[in-house]
Design goal:
The complex is a heterodimer. Chain A is mainly alpha-helical. Chain A starts with a helix and ends with a helix. Chain A has helices spanning about 1-20, 25-30, 35-45, 50-65, 75-110, 115-130, 135-150, 165-195, 200-210, 215-220, 225-250, 255-265, 270-295, 300-305. In chain A, α6 crosses α8 and α7 (about 135-150) crosses α8 (about 165-195). Helix content of chain A is about 75%, strand content about 0%. Chain B has a single domain (about 35-295), classed as MetI-like fold, CATH 1.10.3720. In chain B, α3 (about 40-55) packs across α11 (about 270-295), α4 packs antiparallel against α5 (about 130-145) and α5 packs antiparallel against α7 (about 165-190). Chain B is elongated, with a radius of gyration of 22 Å. Chain B is an all-alpha fold. Classes of the chains: A mainly alpha, B mainly alpha. At the A-B interface, α1, α6, α7, α8 and α11 of A face α5, α6, α9, α10 and α11 of B.
Chain lengths: ~300, ~300
Amino acid sequence: MLLIVLVLVSFLSFLLANLLPGNLAIDILGPAATKTSIAEIDRQLHLNQPLLVRYFEWLGNALRGNLGESYHTGQPVSQALAQRLPVTAELLVLSQIIALAVAVPLGILSALRPGGNLDKAAGAGSFGLLAFPPYVLAVLLVLAFAVRFRVFPATGYVPFTQDPLGNIRDLLLPAITLALGSIAIYIRVLRAEMINTLQENFIIMARSKGLPTRQILLRHALRPSSFALVTVAGLSVGGLIGGAFLIEQVFALPGIGLLTLQAVYDHDFLVVQGVVLVVATVYVAVNFLVDMLYLVIDPRTRHVVATR
Amino acid sequence: MSSLPAESQDTSGAGLLLAPTPSADRAVPVTARRKLGLGTWLSIGWLILVLVGAVFAGLLPIAGPNAVDVSATAQGPGLHHLLGTDELGRDILSRLIYGSRTSLIVGLFSVAVGITVGGLLGVMAGYFRGRVDAITSLLINVMLAFPALIFALAAAAFLGPSLVNVVGIIAILSIAPFARFIRGIAWGTAQREYVTAARMLGYRSGRILHREVLPNIMPAMLSFSFVSMGVAIAVEGALSFLGLSVRPPTPTWGNMIAEGGSYLTVVPLLSVWPALCLLITILALNVVGEQLRRRFDVREGGL
């Protein structure tokens, strides 16, 4: 199932890049293009071959890790991706750490007293945050923290290996921007499931045994309540990557977002295809991992899988 | 969220998650839900204001969106220009009002396409199930696994930035989420007794869909439409922000935020106003969608 989705996505990305108007050869040659030079480029890039032939050629190469070379820079696409991916990955991971660190405690405490002050505040806050598109949030945060108060740098990036502290400092504001959207979603989801769990018999049992609330919440209730959270986190990867693209643009972070934007402006479609393939693969892989994670969270699902 | 969970592929991640969290609200007393709160009225008011402003922008006593007042560039809010002027001396309020047109057109059109195409696919998949559902769900999953923003970026860049293109691209993107959402609701509705009864009476599928299923999924569809209009507006803003939607000098909220971004230190409020408009509009759409959902107590079926 996942593989079919992946193959179809790769084909769609190929179609998208190839069917859209615009002539690549003219793009490369510029206004000085002649008929013969256009034909020459088409031949070099196999653009004169039928679409399906080119697709399978590209897919076959992609499976062997060869995504072709950028038409503009001549750099292999896989190399460009390998250079840029760590930046985006770090941004995503950092944002998710921040999001979970904030959302899990707030979600638990909201569920503990539904309708209480904290619950109301967290609910209203997360509802409001959901309305913030990442780029709007990014511009407002830059305005507040980089222009007005100068706490964080507005743009720039240092690799982690060169300057770990500087790297974190550069990525913190973008990561917070990205995290805020996730926080809103995670609080809502965890709270909803936690409220249901807290009405289960085993929680009443744990309470009547006199276990401290803290222990009940963290050791008994959190684990069975994290299904929806894990699912939603997996699902939001696609949206997060989209958000990361925009945030990289605002903060000038050299991740795959900037790479893609440049490629899109340049009509450099092998790069775009490569990015789509990688992003879709990550999305499908993460959601596969989420399915696996169910087995870790809930031993009962292991049994279901085994007997199926 | 079924076999391949592929729900929130929209760029903000918000749209689909607002709708399907019904269970948590059980703690709210029923009476409290009946009255529309102040927030809802404010939201409705704001949406009407934006709509009226966009439609009658030409009749309002404001400067044209591209009229340049050379004597007053980069000014703060004042009497003559209520929200001030940008770096070229153009009236910010006027640009905001004219800018709302793009957002509204994109939002309304994408919802219309989402409801008709996505809604149709979803209803068919949820009602007929079996092979129809398998094929439709596969298509939906593929569309949702395809990175939406990259699709929008690439398509906008290749097709060229124009209103028609942006409207079309975002409308296409809204099909899959609608189909996914409606499929779940239709699935649940198709299992209800009155549908079984209609089947027993020997009615044709077309009539059952039209008379029994559709009216019962309308409230959910309406609620989802508001939320998803907010998402569409956010995506248009993102494209505008990247210079891939309607081109300047025609104002859109997104390109105004981007323009303001380059003058953050000179005219800080320049990007704050369009950002606020965008936020309040999306928030208002979410509030109204949420109210509708609560009102009709939309339950998620079969997900």
